[in-house]
Design brief:
single chain, alpha+beta, 6-stranded mixed β-sheet, 23% helix
């Protein structure tokens, strides 16, 4: 195992007329044995960052180290990494056995060594009965296991995963996510994992790196980032449904209250719900859907039920309060009637405050 360090790494694409910075001076460290997840929307630079670590993209600026070695100019084959791609990238003319053992054959290991290692990895992944099949004879989940096995069999210093579950259906994705989590605990190999799926990021990662527009927005444990998002982008990206965000202003007049820019939405704010330092300019109030209750309280608001989405284990209720739409979670049996009035309260610690101009957490 080895740690991976990125120090102000950039990727710049140039053509005759334009310059596009895909990755802006990314600095991060994947500790030895850590599972670090890069998460963000399409086009945020996460896959480009991964490909630079793999040696599949050149580095425009900064330094990448695997262990203590700078690998900026080291060919991919010499970096001692194994990569699992979104499209599996299996050799269609080879059997599963040959796909798994191909990298070991290139290292000129004996047939006995290759066979022993292939059987060991096939047993680990539960694909022993598939060894004689070709990739076209496998389901999507089976192909994914073979792709994982081809990486594991090499015993690399670092695993790199590029959205490996995105081609699977929802049920199989949940199953493979559980299997990946169990596998990473058993192997303990340093891993850099790219996904746009926040559930994968939250459930698999020791830490998460949230990226947007080629820049790192926040690095931390899944719960740290969920509970204390650094800015409005992170607050809106992590969480399903996302954090409610209401632009407005805090004013002192017979106590502290929040007044929404859209009008018709006012909250009396207790001291324990207020930011530590009262801002002078416009703010954004953020509230997670689970941080509210369908009852009167302070801080609280009243509105009209705009939509009800029953999900079986819970219902999502959207309330219109003045010009603001607020979504909260309720028990399935407590869902209100459409267009009925509804009083809501915010739980202690449920208010998050952001600077409206620059979007950072207050």
């Amino acid at each position: 195992m080895a740690r991976v360090t990125l120090d102000r790494v950039q990727k710049i694409y140039r053509d005759r007329a334009t310059v596009h910075v895909a990755v802006h001076e990314v600095t991060l460290e994947v500790a030895q044995g850590e599972f670090l997840v890069l998460v963000g929307p399409s086009g945020c630079g996460k896959t480009t960052t991964l490909r630079m670590v793999a040696g599949l993209e050149s580095v425009s600026g900064g330094t990448i180290r695997i262990g203590d070695r700078v690998v900026n100019d080291v060919p991919a084959r010499d970096r001692d990494i194994a990569m699992v791609f979104q499209n599996y990238a299996l050799y269609p003319h080879m059997s599963v056995r040959d796909n798994l053992g191909f990298a070991l054959q290139l290292r000129q290991q004996s047939r006995e060594q290759v066979d022993a290692r292939v059987r060991e990895v096939a047993g680990l992944l539960g694909i022993e009965e598939l060894l004689q099949r070709k990739p076209k004879q496998l389901s999507g989940g089976q192909r994914q296991r073979v792709a994982l096995g081809r990486a594991i069999v090499r015993q690399p210093e670092v695993f790199l995963f590029d959205e490996p579950l995105s081609n699977l259906d929802a049920k199989l994705r949940v199953q493979m996510r559980r299997e990946l989590a169990a596998l990473r605990r058993r192997l303990g190999t340093t891993t850099l994992y790219v996904t746009h799926d926040q559930v994968e990021a939250m459930t698999l990662g020791d830490r998460i790196v949230v990226m947007h527009a080629g820049r790192v927005q926040q690095i931390g444990t899944p719960l740290d980032i969920y509970d204390r998002p650094a800015n409005l982008f992170v607050a809106g990206f992590l969480g399903s449904p996302p954090m409610n965000q209401v632009p407005g202003r805090l004013v002192r007049s017979e106590g502290l209250r929040f007044e929404a820019d859209s009008g018709g939405f006012t909250l009396a704010i207790s001291d324990d719900q207020a930011p530590t330092r009262l801002p002078t300019g416009p703010v954004v109030l953020g509230v997670r859907p689970e941080a509210m209750r369908a009852q009167s309280g302070v801080p609280g608001f009243a509105g009209v039920v705009e939509a009800v989405e029953p999900l079986g284990y819970e219902s999502l209720v959207t309330v219109r309060a003045g010009g603001a739409l607020i979504t909260l979670r309720v028990d399935p049996g407590a869902a209100p009637i459409l267009e009925s009035p509804m009083a809501c309260s915010i739980l202690p610690g449920g208010c998050h405050w952001f600077d409206q101009a620059i979007g950072v957490r207050l």
